[in-house]
Amino acid sequence: MANRKRDIQLIIRVNADERKLIEKQMERYGSRNMAAYIRKIAIDGYVVRLDLPELREMVSLLRRTSNNLNQIAKRMNETGRIYDADIDDTLQKQEQLWQMMNAILNRLAAIK
């Protein structure tokens, strides 16, 4: 134990029902390590796990929009032209990004 970062052991006793509840909560928050989960709960008092698929979708849209803007800038530099359809598409994607961000912020604000 001399090389361990955490060298003090705490022992708690629970009954079978309490253990099932702890394991259920661990599963709910995506934790597989009981010691880490209990340590986190004991120190912070709560665990928050955000599952926001909208955020992943928004990041994907942001990447596509950035790529489109780079292509538009490259074409503008090469030919000196820009198309209305490119601008309209970019504005539409920008609006989608704002709507997604507002939805995410509303979900986060609802967390208590």
Describe the structure.
The protein is an all-alpha fold and 112 residues long. 70% of the residues lie in helices and 0% in strands.
Low-confidence parts: none
Order of helices and strands: HHHH
What is the CA-atom radius of gyration, in angstroms? 24 Å
Count all strands and give the number: 0
The proportion of strand residues reads under 5%
Form type: elongated
Q: Largest sheet, if any?
A: none
Instruction: Summarize the amount of helix as a percent range.
Output: 55-70%
Number of helices: 4
Structural class: mainly alpha
Mean pLDDT: 87
From the N-terminal CA to the C-terminal CA, the straight-line distance is 40 Å
Protein topology:
Elements lengths: L15 H13 L5 H11 L8 H27 L4 H27 L2
Give a short synopsis of this structure.
With 112 residues, the chain is mainly alpha-helical. It contains four helices and no strands.
List descriptors.
112 residues; mainly alpha; 4 helices; 70% helix; 0% strand; elongated
